[in-house]
């Protein structure tokens, strides 16, 4: 075959335009009607003498015009040949290189004065210097980390100039599968409809094992044959091999397979954070990624910018250890934590880790009493208030030397609920205790409060279970399509015939639910499952509601039902909270943990996440309108936030999206009268510098071709596809045809004028 294919195969159809001169010639042929006249025989004799010469001249002129058009179209389509073509000696050998620079965080490792990343950039310059843009060599320079970023797609000279923009590596890992997906797309495009591509792929990397081990589209612990077939990394390598492309990997990493490195793996509280003034344990887990043990590793923690006493820990090889800090937070809200390895090491990016911790304040509870009484044991909310806010002589929380209290309660009668002075936004939880009726206006106000993140707890009783009260509550709070606030439809009261002879018990409950997991322990389970319950309201839960506990009656009736409502939640307790229908309030071992855990869970809400990974986009919300917001990066750079804040619920606004964030550390959004910090963290696995051996990588797939830093250039590899292009010759022939056509046309015209 003369041509193996075309770079732009569709443009090759332009060669058909060579027929245009022929078509014009055929349309312009004159059709004459013979007419005899006296001097005709002299004209015919002269015509016969010159006709053959004119036909030959016209044919040559037509062929030159057709050749010029066809050659020009073929030159634009850029045909290429293989090694077996007779035109091989006329082709030019242009190189098409995809040069990939590993720009991941692990390449910042410094084995000597210079880092691995600097060695990669130096090697990239050497490769680019070997290319010749005047010969037509092309290069696609790609910086690859969490995503593949095309730096340059033109000449080697442009790529060399843009290398300076890659002075520092990104703070994220190398997504090799995503990179090879982009390379496959380019190779298929460059193959131009043929089954082979002539691109050279060069990957300059540190061979970090985490990047080169394929991840599988399966949940199986061990990769089966089917799982291997679904690994994106291997699928892309298979496709490159089909296209005749090998990926040449140059190892520019450290000289050992497991370089020593310490990194902060996690920074988090070791238990529940209760509130300011209560000691909280903060754990800083440090990972030793090297094979040798490390003793006396010094760990520091900054809390809101204040340095805590340094801790020392010993860490065995390829393991982790935790440094524990006791912290007393001074107030509620967001607090910043920054952990440091005091002595540092050769990879700095994982020696520091930041976090933003939310410390809850007192939970504000509004208790709406549907049946007030002067006697606490007959009062609907008397026991609740005593448990949530126990009275003390000095007003302090028992056992804690601060003014902080977990719960702050306000009690109002049902008759005054909904008055103008009651602002639901001032409370985290609203409790309707044995309330017989709620107006439509108040129900709508409750719905808005729950939508914005509040919680509603409904407890039944003799007043709220009256048939008229049940009908009223269903009419205003329950909808079959789920648009009502109630999580279940209320029916009738079910009670035992005699309290002396029988009672109901909690037969089952969700042991994993935060409000009930305390009773999952076998020691505490009987305090929930053995307490007598004499009466309850039969309900039918909605499909999108969750029954957290059931009774042991024949119907397995719900005892506690939860329903998420936008940002908040509604909980329905189908029995009473006083001694009228059960003996729960008589058992402190049941009532106190149940109330505390239930109310803490109800108030928890969907707190936003303030810790993000590098490459994520921050979507933050605030409780005050942010006027003129701007973001402050870890280095102090300030940038105005584009876009307008949007109100997502009553009293909640969303900030314009920030990101993708690429710099690890503490960030801050500030606006007129407010500020909100958030942390950006490097993936802890990036500190694992363990390298995959050359033999193991080549055994993984035959598309890999490994070179060390002193290896031969891939262009000299006999397996590199050879492809020569002819477009310069074709363009020159097209120009020659045009010149000859012009000269020939002038010569014919001059001769015929003289004749």
Structure description:
There is one protein chain. The protein has 755 residues and is an alpha/beta fold. It has five domains: 5-30 and 37-89 and 728-754, no CATH class; 94-257 and 697-721, Rossmann fold (3-Layer(aba) Sandwich); 264-360, Sandwich (Immunoglobulin-like); 364-604, Class I glutamine amidotransferase (GATase) domain (Rossmann fold), CATH 3.40.50; 611-681, Immunoglobulins (Immunoglobulin-like). It contains 15 helices and 35 strands. It has an eight-stranded mixed sheet, with helices on both faces. A six-stranded mixed sheet has the order 5-4-3-6-7-34, sandwiched between helices. Strands 10, 11, 12, 14 and 15 form a five-stranded antiparallel sheet that branches. The model is unreliable at 219-223, 395-401 and 712-721 (pLDDT under 50).
Helix content: 25-40%
CATH fold type of the largest domain: Rossmann fold
Strand-residue proportion: 25-35%
Structural class: alpha/beta
Overall number of strands: 35
Q: Could you describe the largest sheet, including whether it forms a barrel?
A: 8 strands, mixed
Going across the major beta sheet, what is the strand order? Answer: 17-16-18-19-25-24-23-21
Tell me, rounded to a whole number, the average pLDDT: 86
Radius of gyration, rounded?
40 Å
Counted by DSSP, the helix tally is 15
- Alpha-carbon distance between the two ends: 47 Å
Sum up the overall morphology in one term: elongated
List low-pLDDT spans. Answer: 219-223, 395-401, 712-721
Please give the CATH class of the largest domain.
Alpha Beta
Number of domains: 5
The CATH architecture of the largest domain can be named as 3-Layer(aba) Sandwich
Query: In CATH, what is the homologous superfamily of the largest domain?
Result: Class I glutamine amidotransferase (GATase) domain
């Amino acid at each position: 075959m003369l041509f193996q294919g075309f770079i732009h195969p569709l443009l090759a159809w332009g060669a058909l335009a060579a027929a245009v001169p022929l078509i014009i010639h055929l349309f312009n042929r004159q059709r004459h009607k013979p007419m005899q006249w006296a001097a005709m025989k002299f004209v015919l004799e002269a015509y016969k003498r010159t006709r053959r010469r004119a036909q030959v001249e016209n044919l040559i002129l037509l062929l030159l015009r057709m050749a010029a058009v066809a050659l020009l179209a073929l030159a634009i389509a850029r045909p290429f040949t293989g090694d077996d073509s007779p035109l091989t000696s006329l082709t030019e050998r242009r190189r098409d290189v995809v040069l990939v620079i590993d720009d991941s965080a692990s390449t910042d490792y410094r084995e000597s004065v210079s880092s691995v990343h600097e060695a990669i950039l130096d090697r990239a310059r050497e490769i680019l210097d070997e290319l010749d843009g005047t010969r037509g060599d092309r290069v696609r320079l790609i910086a690859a980390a969490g995503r593949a970023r095309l730096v340059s797609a033109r000449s080697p000279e442009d790529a060399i100039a843009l290398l300076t923009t890659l002075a520092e590596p990104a703070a994220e890992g190398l997504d090799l599968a995503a990179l090879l997906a982009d390379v496959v797309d380019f190779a298929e495009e460059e193959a131009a409809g043929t089954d082979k591509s002539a691109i050279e792929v060069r990957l300059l990397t540190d061979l970090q094992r985490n990047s080169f081990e394929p991840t599988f589209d399966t949940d199986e612990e061990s990769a089966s044959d089917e799982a291997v077939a679904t690994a994106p990394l291997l699928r892309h390598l298979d496709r490159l091999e089909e296209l005749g492309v090998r990926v040449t990997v140059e190892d520019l990493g450290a000289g050992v397979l497991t370089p020593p490195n310490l990194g902060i793996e996690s920074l988090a509280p070791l238990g529940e954070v209760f509130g300011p003034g209560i000691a909280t344990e903060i754990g800083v887990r440090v990972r030793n990624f090297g094979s040798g043990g490390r003793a006396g590793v010094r760990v520091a923690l900054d809390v809101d910018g204040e340095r805590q006493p340094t801790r020392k820990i010993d860490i065995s090889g390829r393991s982790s250890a935790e440094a524990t800090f006791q912290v007393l937070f001074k107030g509620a809200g967001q607090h910043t934590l920054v952990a440091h390895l005091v002595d540092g090491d050769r990879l700095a990016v994982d020696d520091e880790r930041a976090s933003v911790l939310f410390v809850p304040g007192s939970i504000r509870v509004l208790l709406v009493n549907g049946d007030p009484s002067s006697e606490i044991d007959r009062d609907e909310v008397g026991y609740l208030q005593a448990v949530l806010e126990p009275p003390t002589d000095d007003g302090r929380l028992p056992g804690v030397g601060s003014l902080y209290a977990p719960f702050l309660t306000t009690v109002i009668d049902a008759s005054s609920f909904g008055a103008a002075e009651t602002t639901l936004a001032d409370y985290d939880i609203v409790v309707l205790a044995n309330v017989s009726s709620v107006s439509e206006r108040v129900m709508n106000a409750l719905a808005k409060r729950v939508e914005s993140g509040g919680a509603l707890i409904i407890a039944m009783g003799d007043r709220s279970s009256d048939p008229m009260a049940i009908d009223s509550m269903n009419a205003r709070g329950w909808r079959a399509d789920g648009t009502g606030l109630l999580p279940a439809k209320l029916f009738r009261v079910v009670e035992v015939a005699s309290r002396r002879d029988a009672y109901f018990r909690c037969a089952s409950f969700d042991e994993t639910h935060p409000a009930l997991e305390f009773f999952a322990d076998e020691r505490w389970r009987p305090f929930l499952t053995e307490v007598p319950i004499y009466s309850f309201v039969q309900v039918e839960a909605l499909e999108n509601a969750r029954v957290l506990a059931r009774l042991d009656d024949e119907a397995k009736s719900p005892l506690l039902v939860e329903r998420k409502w936008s940002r908040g939640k509604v909980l329905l307790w189908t029995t009473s909270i006083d001694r009228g229908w059960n003996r729960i309030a008589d058992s402190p071992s049941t009532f106190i943990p149940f109330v505390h855990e239930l109310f803490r869970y109800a108030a928890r809400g969907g707190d936003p996440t303030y810790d993000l990974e590098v490459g994520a986009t921050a979507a933050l919300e605030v409780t005050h309108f942010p006027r003129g917001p701007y973001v402050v990066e870890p280095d102090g750079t300030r940038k105005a936030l584009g876009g307008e804040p949007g109100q997502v619920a009553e009293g909640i606004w969303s900030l314009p999206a920030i990101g993708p964030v690429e710099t690890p550390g503490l960030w801050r959004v500030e606006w007129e009268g407010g500020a909100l910090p958030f942390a950006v963290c490097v993936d802890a696995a990036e500190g694992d510098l363990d390298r995959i051996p050359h033999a193991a990588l080549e055994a993984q797939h035959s598309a890999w071709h490994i070179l060390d830093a002193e290896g031969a250039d891939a262009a000299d590899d006999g397996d590199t596809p050879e492809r020569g292009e002819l477009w310069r010759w074709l363009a020159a022939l097209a120009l020659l045809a045009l010149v000859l056509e012009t000269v020939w046309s002038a010569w014919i015209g001059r001769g015929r004028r003289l004749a």
